[in-house]
Amino acid sequence: MRWLIWVCLFVVSINAQTLQLSISSNPSRINPILSTDSASSEISGWIFNGLFKHDKNGDIVGDLASGYSFEDNTTLLIKLKKSVLWHDGQPFDADDVIFTYEAIQNPKLFTPLKSSFEFVKSVQAIDSHTIKVVYRQPYFKSLNIWMTGMLPQHILANSKDIMTDSFNSNPIGTGAYKLDKLTISQDIKLERFDRYFGDKPAIETISYKFLPDINTGFFALKQKSLDIGSLSALQTDRQISSKFKKDFHIIQKQSFGYTYMGLNLKKKIFQDKNIREAINLSIDKQELVDILFFGYGKVCHGPFLPNSFAYNDEIKQPKPDIKKAIQLLKSAGYDEDNPLVFTVVTNSNNPTRVYATQIIQHQLAKAGIKMGIRVLEWQAFLNTVVLPGNFEAVVLGWGLSLMPDAKPLWHSSSDQKGGFNLVGYNNKKVDTLIEESATMIDKKQLSKAYKKMFKLIADDLPYIFLYIPDSITAINKDIKNIEPSWTGIWHNQHRWEKIR
After folding, report:
1. Is 356 helix (H, G, I), strand (E, B) or coil?
2. Cβ distance 407 to 421 under 8 Å?
3. 135 shares a domain with 79
4. Do residues 166 and 172 make contact, with C-beta atoms less than 8 angstroms apart?
5. pLDDT tens for each residue of 179-200
6. Which residues of the chain have pLDDT under 50?
7. 137 and 189 both lie in a single domain
8. Considering the domain boundaries, does residue 360 fall inside one?
9. Buried b vs exposed e over 426-443: b needs ≥16 C-beta within 10 Å?
């Protein structure tokens, strides 16, 4: 009997050390300078560290850096922590920082980070744990860019092509967790790195289940085979039971992202602003929010999020106006006998986007617009549609950082292979504002410039801005010490404990 009790306690102890999570798509490259999709970014976040990070209040604090100082407004000195090891036991030092910077600058490597580092004039190792960064001019993201995860020089220095290196599926980082197992379309397992330089997490293992369907993930939550998971608005509003509420905390907050319909401005039909405006006036965004989110979301009015320094609250989406939309279409040469016809593409692993696209199709039909729909699996969508620009229109979403940077999405120079200006947007006034704002250290001046950008982009309609969903998270009440904040729940993960 004592033996049975001991075994049960041992099993509970093991279970208490494992955090059960889910992932809806396969990571493409687990490499912090190449992780452009959400799955890759999430896994990379556990494995790699930047020199800096955000704390729970959104303030910048040291991560691999022990401190920093500015010699002047273009010269930054960064001190590195001396106790940091890579997962293979090799020490982290200044050479790794320089290697990461040079990898980002490599013309053969396609990464949207290039634009963030273009203002860096030089990076120099003063000693093995001191870095001197000289900027070409004062730069508003002088610290933020160094939140990028660092790469190990001793592993990748001789790589023929980092884009295709096996490192991207067998990563070595400095993070609190290291990759134990990666099985495509199945499971991902992370093990605690016991020689981690920071606060040692109480939870030993993070286990990801591959659950591409949100309903499967919801079922797994109800069975308590997941500890943390996202809930849809429908599930939150209509499908959770009193038992579920007893077992899980439900945390609701505005997400750091929005969904949009991107119109490929290289296609002739979308180069006429009347067409873009007609589409915009034919879509009832509030109806989308009401149907899809039951009040757990809001209409998106432009490219930067509410409550950020960049948000222009004077700009609002116009109310739907089918009559005006039809008039605009006629002025562009479209009518009942010659309707506007185009196809929108979106990804299957985000059912909310699929539903939104179907609703939009119905709404556009009222103005005589015939919109076809293609739905593809994420990797096929990314590699055959989005990245090569092989589309007329896409329904996609962007997640934004606490310090939004307009250049990767909205500057004309980002309309290139590896860039995020997917729709080919080109506005010289916006380009100038982006270039001028990059040198602005004063937050009020920066805010004023970004609000001007907001208005110009919203007026141009390269995107049909749709909605900002709320982030709704269910958390197993067996996990203790979670402290929700404006930035989310993960800031103090090292203190989490699972009691059963």
Report:
1. helix
2. no
3. yes
4. no
5. 998 888 788 999 999 999 999 9
6. 1-16
7. no
8. yes
9. bbeebbebbeebbbbeee
- Sign of the Cα torsion 304, 310, 311, 317 reads negative
Q: Domain containing 84: what range?
A: 50-158
- Residue 40 domain flag: no
Alpha carbon distance 37, 112 (integer Å): 12
336 and 410 fall within a common domain: yes
Contact 367, 329 (CB under 8 A): yes
Q: DSSP character for 274? A: H
Phi, psi of 45 (to 5 degrees): -60, -30
pLDDT number for residue 7: 38
For residues 352 and 302, state if they share a domain: yes
287 CB contacts (<8 Å, ≥6 apart)? Answer: 359, 363
What letters, b where the CB count within 10 A reaches 16 and e where it falls short, cover 479-491?
beebeeeebebeb
- Are the C-beta atoms of residues 464 and 497 closer than 8 Å to each other? no
Alpha-carbon torsion angle 366, 371, 375, 379, nearest 10? -130
326 and 432 inside one domain = yes
Number of separate domains in the chain: 3
Q: How far apart are CA 167 and CA 156, in angstroms?
A: 8
> Which residue is listed with tokens 């850096």?
65
Taking Cα atoms as reference points, which of 48, 201, 72 lies closest to residue 133? Answer: 72
End-to-end CA distance of the chain: 21
Determine the pLDDT at residue 212.
84
Interatomic CA distance for residues 53 and 62, integer angstroms: 6
Burial 304-337 (b: 16+ CB within 10 A, else e): bbeebebbbeeeebeebbbeebbebbeebebeee
296 CB-side CA count, 13 A: 22
Burial class (CB in 10 A: 0-12, 13-18, 19+), 220: middle
